[in-house]
Amino acid sequence: MENLKKYQMYIGGEWVDAASGDYFETDNPYTGRPWGLIPRGGQQDVDSAVNAAHRTLNSVEWRGMTASKRGQLLRALGDMLGEHAPHLAEIEVRDNGKLYAEMSQQTEYLRQWYYYFGGLADKIEGAVIPIDKADNFTFTQYEPLGVIAAIIPWNSPLFLAAWKIAPALAAGNTLVIKPSEFTSASMLEFAKIFEKVGLPAGVLNVVTGFGVEVGAPLAVHPLVAKVAFTGSETTGKRIYATAAEGLKKVSLELGGKSANMVFEDAHLDNAVKGVISGIFAACGQTCVAGSRLLVQRSIHDNFVHKLVDLARTARLGDPMLSTTQLGPVTNRPQLSKILDYIGIAKQEGAEAVIGGKQPKEASLQAGWFVEPTIFIGIANSMRIAREEVFGPVLSVIPFDDEEEAVALANDSNYGLAAGLWTSDYRRALRLPSQLQVGTVWVNTYRAMSYMAPFGGYKQSGIGKESGQDMIKDYLQKKTVWMSTQEEVPNPFIIR
């Protein structure tokens, strides 16, 4: 254990050990071995962090800072993140096993959220109401909600954290962040950069640990005004119920079982690449994974053949190498879950035309790898087609016509995203409004931007992230009435 890198939590502008003094190991998914020690926080640490955030929220230093100054500091943070992007990407790869080729792009791009919302910070404007009451001047103004609890998943920690941190700070809130116990290191490395920007101590705090010991106490804390969560729908529902007891605001970005729909008039080679990207990029560990392929029956066999041919070329290996196309699963419990679902699919009668097991290459034995897997013979009622696997497992479902494709796509408890591959521009314009999802990609997949709202329908969550309007999810509106009358009229009646 002496050789493992030891981290501390970041609370109130100071680096501290957990109150308990306990640590837990964080593993490298490629080697299957621990590489760092993370503080195991608990109730006392949560209290310290929330109290620090609350003190700063009400401090003259933060409350009195102009919105323009907040924006300037957020943009400075964006600059610093750009300088440290390669280092942050290496930490993310070591902790979650995703490809350096993708993580380096993510850590480079995440600065844009701080630029964008830094630019919006001083453009939050109230309005004067042409009120119908004589001798009154009435206006609205926006104010921060308060202390925000941000609970971050393990698949893209810094990227998804930026979606919460940037708008929350731009709006004048303070934050306590709880990263996943599987991938805490990158958020602690982020905090090292954050503290150099010049924002007041306590504006951002990071408490590490397990869900029951840190996440739950954070969600119920009386000084927390909002919980912003990304993760599974099971945990999201618990947070929603818990937050309701304290009348806290919530935003929940949860799971998905997204349909990638391919019509016979599509550019098939492009569609094949889009389907591969939708399910095998990031080892399928994305909430928007296109895990259900709906393909028109007239091209089903040919398309599946092309798909298998391309999937067979996927190179599994060290995620730090540019030649690797599919890295390991992020954590051991997730590996077991994926393998369990593969077993369930086979029991249900599905046929794996490729994959369906762990690779046998000696070089991959230490890591948590799963072969890219494609199942045919799938009915939309099967568990493999209805439940989120969160791994490189694709279910292929044929359809006959547009009406059936839409019905199959919508026949899901989830509603996060969908893909549509067609050369018919009428269909491309017509179908998105029929799909019960928050994002529709036409002839592309997994495109993201700080400018575009993101969030789901149905069991995929509540609220949106990114985009200009969502900053108001971190604000509350106040109405101010000012009388211009010389004397107070009859005090016994409503004005």
TrEMBL record:
Pfam families attached to this UniProt entry: Aldedh (PF00171)
Classification via Gene3D superfamilies: Aldehyde Dehydrogenase, Chain A, domain 1, Aldehyde Dehydrogenase, Chain A, domain 2
Catalytic residues (positions): E253
Coiled-coil spans in chain: none
CDD domains in the record: ALDH_DhaS (cd07114)
Keywords, sorted A to Z: Oxidoreductase
SUPFAM superfamilies documented for this protein: ALDH-like
GO molecular function, one term: oxidoreductase activity, acting on the aldehyde or oxo group of donors, NAD or NADP as acceptor
Transmembrane recorded as keyword: no
InterPro entries: Ald_DH/histidinol_DH, Ald_DH_C, Ald_DH_CS_CYS, Ald_DH_CS_GLU, Ald_DH_N, Aldehyde_DH_dom
Highest taxon listed in the record's lineage: Bacteria
Residues covered by the Aldehyde dehydrogenase domain: 15-480
Similarity section: Belongs to the aldehyde dehydrogenase family.
Protein's name according to its UniProt entry: Aldehyde dehydrogenase
Organism of origin: Caballeronia ptereochthonis
